[in-house]
Amino acid sequence: MSQVEIARKAQIGAANSPTVRSATGNRPARKDQRSAVSNGARLHVVRPGDTAWSRRFRDVLAEIISDIGGPDAGLSEGQRQLARRAATICIQCERMEGVAAAGQDINLEDYGKLTDRLGRCFARLGLKRQPKDVTPNLQQYLREHYPRDTSDDATT
After folding, report:
1. Residue 142's pLDDT is what?
2. 3-state class (DSSP) for residue 45
3. Contact, 65 vs 7, CB < 8 A?
4. Alpha-carbon dihedral sign for residues 81, 84, 90, 93
5. Are 2 and 70 in contact (CB under 8 A)?
6. What's the pLDDT at 31?
């Protein structure tokens, strides 16, 4: 499933959420009485256009939603909202990184705050850092650093 499809399914999941109620609160609101965002037709109330950053936002949002269980995981509105905030912070950090990579100065205080807020947002979503053990076992280490010479084996 593509990232666009994941993001769209997440929005459709929001549209089918049982918590979307009419003003009276007794029955679900009709689809024509809700915003296009609530219905899952759009990611934003005002369409941002087909810019590189809007596509990147959609991709990052799809990846974050995938990380927290995917669009079919029955995410709550709060989880979807936090995922959107995390995607927004991610692309802002990426913009700043692009400026820094081009050799221009960035406000490291703002960058640090955004990074910290992103980490807290991920923690609230339940995402954890999963360190990968890259330590080789003894056999791997010996094979890599002390290759066996097969020519000696034939004479022994």
Report:
1. 86
2. coil
3. yes
4. negative
5. no
6. 60
- The residue segments making up the domain with residue 115 are 3-155
Nearest-CA neighbor of 14 among 63, 87, 74, 66?
Answer: 74
CA angle 117, 90, 100 (to 5 degrees): 100
Closest CA to 10 of 74, 67, 86: 74
pLDDT of amino acid 89? 97
Q: What is the pLDDT of residues 81-112, one digit of tens each?
A: 999 999 999 999 999 999 999 999 999 999 99
pTM of the model: 0.60
Rounded Cα distance, 51 and 150, in Å: 59
Element (H, E) at 107: none
Residue recorded with tokens 């369409």: 47
The predicted structure's pLDDT at residue 22: 46
Amino acid at 152: D
Number of structural domains in the chain = 1
